[in-house]
Amino acid sequence: MAGLELLFHSVAPEIACPQDALVCYLHWTLIAHRYRCLGAGDQPGHDEKKSEMLPAGWNADKDLYTLRYVAKDDAHELLVKGIMMDGSMIFNVLNPKTKQVGDLTVKVTDYVNPEHLGAFDKVYKNTEDLQSQVVHHILSLFDTTRERADTKEVPRREKNPSPPNPPDHDPLWIPPRHPHGSQQPHWPDPLGPFAVGGEDLDPLGGRRGGMISDPLRSGFPNPVIDPSSGLPHRLPHGAVPPGARFDPFGPPGAGRAGPNPDHLPPPNYDDMFM
């Protein structure tokens, strides 16, 4: 804690309460992190200079401490206010330029011994914990060295950069779902006992597709597709272009016999010879 002892002895006659000693420690922590004090109060005074010492009137109000600081490189200004409330000190820190804020609340007697305010070797306790809290809750929010490092950081290269597009590349071109030369998906056996309902459970899994019957994938060899099935007259030649997707009006196959009149007998009808 180099410098804290000299600072403490320079203001020892003015330290009259534990919160005075706590504000003195906070002031030293800011000075150790390349900040300089401009003065006390909210508004700047005449002929202010950067100083490592506490300004005149810094502890005039024992319930409200107001100090202003500036970074050594003038990158940040801090307005620090310490409010005493129920044995605890609440530090509120504001950057007037960026409106960024930070705060820290500590119990005074956890870090200051009120019975030894005049003895530097006994007045402070748990200093490592106090310093870590000040750095974490206040100084880390206004770290000028970290911001300078971030601005100078070189952007990282991508691990797998995409290759450049060829000169004739069309950004609106959509590649086909199944390129030429790729194999068609394997269609399961429609007569398999465990295949029932699989298409409905997984409609996007590359299967046949739910309750829609496709005669080309019916499982029977070389099915005959007749677009005129179910019509009283045949469609004119060329009505269905070759390769077009077309749902026939009737079942596949030409010249099929009609249904048997006794295919479905009336209810409660048991005379099979009628």
TrEMBL record:
Highest taxon, organism lineage: Eukaryota
The protein's name in its UniProt record: Proteasome inhibitor PI31 subunit
